Amino acid sequence: MAVNHTDLFPPSAMQAIDAAAIANGLCGRGLMERAGAAVAAAALRHWPEMKRALVLCGPGNNGGDGHVAARHLSAAGVKVERFGLAAKAGSDAAWALGRFPGAVADLALCRPEAGDLVIDALFGAGLDRALEGDVAVLIERVNAAAVPVLAVDLPSGVSGRTGRPTGPCFTAERTVTFAAQKPGHVLLPGRALCGAVEVADIGFPARMLTAPAPVSINHPALYLPHLRGPDAAAHKYSRGHLVVFSGPLISGGAARMAAEAGLKAGAGLVSLATPPAAVMAQAAHVTAVMQRSIDGLETLEGWLDDRRLAAFILGPGFGADATSAARARAYAAAVASAGRRLVLDADGLSAFTGHGETLHAIGAAIPLVLTPHEGEFRRLFAPLAEDKTLSKIERAQAAAARGAAIVVYKGADTVIAAPDGRAAVNVDAPAWLATAGSGDVLAGLIGALLVQGMPAFEAACAGVAMHAAAARRHGPGLTAEDLIAAVRPLPLTAA
């Protein structure tokens, strides 16, 4: 089986797959043997000069993987010491322990030293409660010793479902997981606590690796099939006309950045819909971007008779006062009534605080993309934001269903979710992307892909990928203006 490195499975789904595989004739001990061998191979490959391998073995299958890894490392000439908890009699973990007899010392006796490698095979992804007692003390001791940790499946103490620590947890330099990654490997802070993640193929049939809801890492295969190639007969209108609503005189820069990003991302034509008092100020700053003076709802509704207007962006610098918020809701409803696509960002999102039913009605009528950062998400979907039991993926999925919209829940681990349960997690955004105006640029990228005919979920995934790629291309010291300049077209095929 070729390992799919992009699909994400919550621990409960992976446990069900494991049970189904064994029920269908796959040998559980064989799976454990291959898992432990993969861990030992990773240890030898990345720490060939280790003085000792301190293998911490839990009572379940994760601990069984650790016993197998210890046996392989010992056979390779590594000095191995095991510490752990008793395996349940008759279990596969007890079988693995029996194949490598010898002392398994109490966890309280483990004293890591310089030159040691700690292999954390205590609990893995299946545990979702705080670790206490000797385990918690040992975690603190290992972390303080500053020795490398190789985690089996997931660092003990990190939730495989949410990526959040449940209490004390290991900080691993590397993690070996099996068959597929879990959400905890890619959601923060789990991604940082896992270190580099290796996915080992231990023999699960590909037909069994079917997620209950399609959740994956954001990757080109999600969106490239929906990207249109260049057409020699194309003209600016066939490439799509994108409109960005501009705000008051003092805050027009955000809308300009969204508009300019839209041009760089391939929209054939981009216009600013500008209040009359701000038209001259915008004209002093834009060249390729066009303008239309919009002095109210009646003017907008008249312009919407032009069917070439394909998609709209509403929110960047639009205004956050009550009058602006009411105008934003009215403009969004007009766009929806005209059957156009819409991206709501920044002030356009805040305008719908307390107006969830109106937002859902708009999303039910047209392709709608919402791009909240953490604060905007909290204002718009307060009950979801306050529910500490949910992962970021689960929050985004629930918000997408409530808003009947694609939700781009921004951050270093941006989650893109659709009302039908699809979700993708972006994992390659650099830290320097956290800069003023970068969200306006993202809105422009997504809007440009919408006017070029991409479905909303795929356009959001592609826009997030373009955004991160542009930031990586530029490097540290990035400003929003730099980000726009660094935008490049998407490749037509995956690398």
Automatic annotation (TrEMBL):
Cofactor mode of binding and number, as noted: Binds 1 potassium ion per subunit.
Keywords noted in UniProt: ATP-binding, Isomerase, Lyase, Metal-binding, Multifunctional enzyme, NAD, NADP, Nucleotide-binding, Potassium
EC number(s) recorded for this UniProt protein: 4.2.1.136, 5.1.99.6
A family per Pfam: YjeF_N
Name listed for the protein in its UniProt record: Bifunctional NAD(P)H-hydrate repair enzyme
Stored PANTHER family: ATP-DEPENDENT (S)-NAD(P)H-HYDRATE DEHYDRATASE, ATP-DEPENDENT (S)-NAD(P)H-HYDRATE DEHYDRATASE FAMILY MEMBER
Family (UniProt): Belongs to the NnrE/AIBP family. In the C-terminal section; belongs to the NnrD/CARKD family.
Catalytic reaction equation(s): (6R)-NADHX = (6S)-NADHX; (6R)-NADPHX = (6S)-NADPHX; (6S)-NADPHX + ADP = AMP + phosphate + NADPH + H(+); (6S)-NADHX + ADP = AMP + phosphate + NADH + H(+)
This protein's encoding gene: nnrE
Keyword Transport: no
Role, per record: Bifunctional enzyme that catalyzes the epimerization of the S- and R-forms of NAD(P)HX and the dehydration of the S-form of NAD(P)HX at the expense of ADP, which is converted to AMP. This allows the repair of both epimers of NAD(P)HX, a damaged form of NAD(P)H that is a result of enzymatic or heat-dependent hydration. Catalyzes the epimerization of the S- and R-forms of NAD(P)HX, a damaged form of NAD(P)H that is a result of enzymatic or heat-dependent hydration. This is a prerequisite for the S-specific NAD(P)H-hydrate dehydratase to allow the repair of both epimers of NAD(P)HX.
Keyword Transferase: no
Cofactor(s) this protein requires: Mg(2+); K(+)
Binding locations of (6S)-NADPHX: 61-65, 124-130, 153, 254, 317, 373, 440
Database matches in InterPro entries: Carbohydrate_kinase_pred_CS (IPR017953), CARKD (IPR000631), Nnr (IPR030677), YjeF_N_dom (IPR004443)
CDD domains named among the record's database cross-references: YXKO-related
Domain YjeF C-terminal: 219-494
Residues involved in AMP binding: K410, G411, A412, D413, T414, G439
Quaternary structure, from the entry: Homotetramer.
Domain YjeF N-terminal span(s) in chain numbering: 14-210
Lineage, broadest ranks: Bacteria, Pseudomonadati, Pseudomonadota, Alphaproteobacteria, Hyphomicrobiales
Binding sites annotated in the UniProt record for K(+): N62, D120, S156
